[in-house]
Each structure stands twice: as C-alpha cells, then as structure tokens.
Amino acid sequence: MIAKLRSLRLTQRQAFAFLAIILALALIALLIYLLWLLSRGGFTSGGGAVVEGLRPIYVIDGPGEGEKPKFDRPMGVAYGKDGRIYVSDTDNNRVCVFNGRGQFLFEFGEFGVAKPLPGGEMSWVEGRMNFPLGIDVDDEGNIYVADFRNDQIQVFDREGIFLRRFPDPMQVVGKGASGQDGTGIAVTDVAVWDGKVYALDSYQVVVFTADGEFYAQFGKPGSGPGDLDRPNGIDVADDGTIYVSDSNHNRVTAFDQTGEVLWTLGEPIGEMAAEVEYVFGLPRGITVMSDGSILVVDAFEHTLSEATAQGDFVRRYGRRGTQPAEFNFPNAVDDNDDRIVVADKENNRVQVLELLK
Amino acid sequence: MPVGAWNHRSSHRSMGWLPELRQKALVAAAVAFIATLLSVSAAYAFDELTPPAAKGCPDCHGLESGFTSPTVAPTRKGPHGGYSAGTQKCGTCHTVHAAPPDGVLLLPKTTIKDTCFTCHDGTGGNGVYGVLNARGITPAAQHRIEVTNLVPGGDPNGDAKTKTFSAANGYLTCSDCHSPHDAETVSAFAGDRARTSTDTTFPLSPATNRLLKKQPTSSPWSVDQYGSSWCGGCHEGRMYGSAGVVNHPVETETAGFYYDNIVRVTGTDTNTTEMGTLGGNNFGYVMPITRSAQQSGHYPICQQCHEDSRNIGDVSPGQIAPGETFSVTTSDGQNAANNPRFQAFPHESENAYFTVEQNDDLCLNCHIPPG
Questions:
Q1: Is B353 an 8 Å CB contact of chain A?
Q2: Do A346 and B118 touch (CB under 8 A)?
Q3: Does residue B108 belong to the interface with chain A, where contact is any CB pair within 8 Å?
Q4: B336 vs A15: CB contact, 8 Å cut-off?
Q5: Looking at the structure, do residues B263 and B324 belong to the same domain, yes or no?
Q6: Does B122 touch chain A (CB under 8 A)?
Q7: What is d(CA B304, CA B233) in angstroms, rounded to the nearest whole number?
Q8: B292 pLDDT more than 90
Q9: Are both B162 and B226 inside the same structural domain?
Q10: Is the ipTM of this complex over 0.95?
C-alpha cells in the first residue's frame, strides 16, 4: 500500500482537482459544524477531561445575544424540574434561562431600586432587580430570586412573568431582619420546599409561605451553635432538614424544621496556619443531592465539598483554574440527578458537570 | 477512478516530490507532537496550590517588607494574614495558571480593585462601595479608586497635590491604604461597623485594624494608631502645624490623640468628658463650647467630623440638648433607627466631604453663631 502511494503520480490538473475536492469537503464539514454550534445558542462549549472527580459536560458564558451577550459575575444557579437552568447574572441585574442542553431561551430583569433613601430615585417596577443572588424553582416552575440590595424576594412564573414580591422591603419582618433600616431582608439565598420559602438574611433563616406570609425565623448573631454570620447558601432535604452555609463562620449547620441544630461541620478559622485542619475556607452555595448527601461550594478553596447527610466530610471536587471543571471563586451550585450546575463567578460562566463519586 | 490510473497518467510535470514532502511533514509533525507533550507535561507537573514539601509560599517568595517572621495577627479571619510557615493560603488569591495575562501580582482579576471586589461585594459584610447606588443615591463623596491620584490637601501648603499610588497611571487603589496580608498595619481600633460574628454590643470585640497600613502609599510618615495622623499621611495640608492650614487643623498622634484616645462626653445629656474611643458611640463627635478642661487647647481629630453620615443630635453650643441620644445601633438592622446607615466610610458617603452631618447641622454643634 505504501509502495503504491509512493509511486503515485498526478498531473498538476489532477492534483489541483484533488485538493479542491478536499477543500470543498472541509468547507462543508466546517459549515455543518458552525450550524450545529449556532443551534446550541449562547456562548456554549463542551467536553473536556475529568478533573478531580468532575467530568465537564458544557460551559455557558452567557446568552450569546442581545446587549449583554456574556455573564458578569453570575452568583446564583438553579435547575428546574424540567431540566431548565436558571442563572442569576448578578452584575447584569437579570436572570437568564437555558434549556437542559445549554441553549439560551430568554432573560428577564434589569436594574431597579426598590428602597430609595430620601432624595434617591425609586426606579423599581415589577421585575427589576438590584444585585440578584440566590435563585430557586418550585415544582410548578415558579422562579424565586433573592433580590439582595432591594431587601426582598421576587417570584416569577416559568416564563419570567412577575408574580409577586415579599417581604415588603419597607416593613419589619417578624422580630426584625437585616434589611436597611431594619426593614425587609438583605437576602442572599432562597430555597423552596413543601410550600414554604426559606430565606437567608445576614444572621438568620426567615421562613415564608409560598404566598409570602411570614412563617418563622431562627438564628442570630454570635458564634455559638446555630448562630449565623453572613450565610450565603441554603437548601432543604426531602426529610425537611435545612442546610445552611454559614459563610463567615466557615461551617455548615443542619437545622430541623423548628430551628434546632442537628449538627455543624467546620468551625470558625482563627489562625490560618498550615497545620490547622479546616473543612471549609469560605462555604457559599449549597445543594442537597438526590442521594441525600450535600454539596457545598467553597469559594476560597475553589472547589466543591461533599458531606454526608449526617455531617461527615467526604471529599473535594474540582480545582482552581479557568479550564472546564476548574473554578475561580465559585458561588453557587444546584443538583439535577446525574448533573450539577455551578455558578463559576470570577470566570464569568456557568458550568454543567457530572460528579464522579 | 483507480489510484493506479493516476500513476499511469503521470508526466514530467508529475507531483513526484509529494512522498518526500509527506516524509518531511511526518517527521515535523512527530517532532512537534513530542515537543508539545514535553511542554504540556512540564506545565501540568507544577501544582501551584501545593508548596513543595516542608515549604511554604514565603520560603520562595520571601516575607512582607519589614517582617522577620511569617506569623502575624493570630486572630485574623479569612485569607488576610495569620500566616505560618508552610501556609497554603496564598493560593486563595494568587494563582499562577488562572491569572489573567494582563493582570497584576498573579491575582484573579486584572486590577487590584476588581480583585478586592471579588469578595467585598456586600455579601460578606458592610462597608463596601456601591451601597449608596443601591439606594438610589449618587455618592456625594468618595475615595475614588483607580480613577485619580489628585489628593485634596495633599500638599503641605494646603493645595491639592498629585501623588503616585499603586494602580495603573499612579492612581489610588485599595492596597495603598490596606495591606491584604495584614503586614505593618496599625493597632486594632474600635471601628463603627459591627461586622463580626460576636454579639453586637459596643465596643466591638475583637477590635480590628481594618488592615490599614501604618504607612499608606505616598505617606511621608508611619503611624501606629488610626486617627488624624493616619489621614494626614496623604492629606498633609490638613495637619496641625502644616503651613497651609488656616481653618480646622486636626490633632495629632504626637499629642496623644487618636481614634481610641480622644476626649469625649461621658454620655447623653452631659458635658462631662473622659478619654475614650470614638467608635462605638457618638459621645465624642462634638466638642461643644464651653469646652471641658480635657478638651481645652486641643483640636478635634479628623474622624470627629468626617465619618459615616449620622445624626449626632441637636446640640446647642455650650449645652447638649436634654434628652438627646447619641447611640450607634448595630448593623443587623434590628433597630429601625440604624445609625450610621451605611458604614461605608471612608469609601463613600451620602454627605459631601464625608462629614457626619451636613452644613450648619454640623457646624452649630460647636460654634456659637454671631449675635
């Protein structure tokens, strides 16, 4: 065969014809590839090698269209029951929605101030946001957004149509919360479970009904068990256990439905010495996986940490970097059976990954 | 068409050089492939997050200027200090492979400001830029970061002066005032912001030094305590004794007056004074006339007039109005009269010139109007 190839002789015309055919085939292949790429929508790319227990599936850099085609510090993510991916694109003050393949569907939200000071401009109308953070979706597909600097939660239907907001950011919530001037909630994350909405403020968990009626609150400033300091992640397990990423305490605390502490994992870090073992550098987003274990975003370790439902540390996933399955100050995570989605904040992207246990 | 047919139709203008070209191409491709493998393996062989065995980052990179030991403040939370030999915490912020090519100091963002904002965005505590815009207010005063290096009162004669700071173009940036490594920083002082996890009664415990450098960039002197002398490192023309000062000179650390050691009234509705800290209450924000023996002959420090905006009461000269309260409430917002509101000093303020109150509301606390 090789001898035959070596003895191959072509006329110039034949050689050019051969090259033309090759080029034409390459061009056709390129066009097919481009059509496939464009059909996926958004700035989406896929694949990559397994990294520290994570298999990259695809990466979304933004909607890929409109005035803001790319994310700017996305800090919240959620899976819908239908596999949709919802992203709090924080510095762009919007929510972007993608289907399960990463195709961009639509976006909603823009900057609006709901709680102006005297002399300030009230620019909020229904659906406008001010530094949206945590996000969750109920069984009907309604979307709950932690509207952090407006001291409120906004609820939208699955198409992004505004439904309601709560609490009233100008009214005291329960015994009081961390919103500006003591009204509303400086809410960092929300979780919807069994008809209730669990929200975090600076030092508490505040529970509402899905309609927005105040239901309960627990937690307070301090450093004892159950005290909270700037928590940034909350999720609720099927059995009702409430998991909170107690960020500035470098720990995760599990509460029962009455607010009693079940366990804590991690502890406040004093001296950051190498010989001091610590579990979390800065726990932020948290999700309960389908097998009941929990997955915690560690923003300072640039990893995901797994723990059992009983509060035992299991292992870390991923590492720092800019390649797929690598993170740069990640902030949020959600789980959808065999896949997870991560808000990779300082890489300005969202990653869909498979967790290889 | 059979391949052999092409050979059959070969001529003197045949492509007989193709096999040789293929061989060369194959050799070149093999060399390139091996070279690529070697370079890639070398890159991946270095784990930036794990120092070599028994070594910490300072073993190769050295210590902060002025330090003889890598161990600094033992109670500092987060990645800012508290390092010991063998620490791996440098990798929290610094990254070899993930740093942007146009960045600085192997930080995750292209500027120091953006790197700081990576965490200091309000979700972990108060006192950050942006909180006023979030309330529909355009800040009336800011220490503008990475946009200017013109310092009001920066010249000893009282004029503005262009200085050279650490950001591009010599502009001011966060690390000109703060040391992210808590190296060579001022003593801890009782700040006004309740951002710790302890209970929120004042004075705060533990106190913090806000990572303020003893000697901010461009400052001609180093100070141990936060107060007027610290501010005066950049605003030299505002210091007592400076040639350009014609009004409101400020007291100095040399005189023993700083943030945690000033003359303040002992409580509401009184003119009795004591030496104490400015932070934690509003008792020390005014020096009503007639002054006490402790106040007499001294000037206020900068922070008595320039701090977070707040209501320091309706104080008549010579007498604090009966029943006036001056309490500073906590930042958890449980008190509807939260005061100060934003705790963003000295980053930004709703009041011009960072004054605690505006216009004559401030002036009349100390000065008796004519007539």
A1: no
A2: yes
A3: yes
A4: no
A5: yes
A6: yes
A7: 18
A8: no
A9: yes
A10: no
